[in-house]
Amino acid sequence: MAHARFQIHRLGELGMTWRFLSANNRTIAQSPTPFPDADLCRDAVRDLRERLAEASVVVARGDSAQLWLWRVRIAGSDVAVSSRKYHRRVQAAYASRCFLELVGATGISDAPRLLHS
């Protein structure tokens, strides 16, 4: 049975990024910036999991004044961003809470899978 999980993707010359997928394979969140290699990307995922209790969520309008985005911050730095935009602020806030709950439910031993994109 499928479950929520992290995946690491190669971005060509840009480096690596992680994505967090729901059980039905929809991307919920992603890393805010690329990482030079897979090990640093895995370290970022591990840090996010271990410091989840310190996380705060910021919901704000995106480039379009009509759409909303969310981001998760730890110690003043963005550590995750929404993978899509939402028509309502309440939808973005709900999606961010779901992300935090799902990350909290994933096991530390669930190592992110490296996918070659």
TrEMBL record:
Gene3D superfamilies: 2.30.29.80. InterPro entries: YegP-like_sf (IPR036913). This is DUF1508 domain-containing protein. It comes from Actinokineospora soli. The lineage of its organism: Bacteria, Bacillati, Actinomycetota, Actinomycetes, Pseudonocardiales.
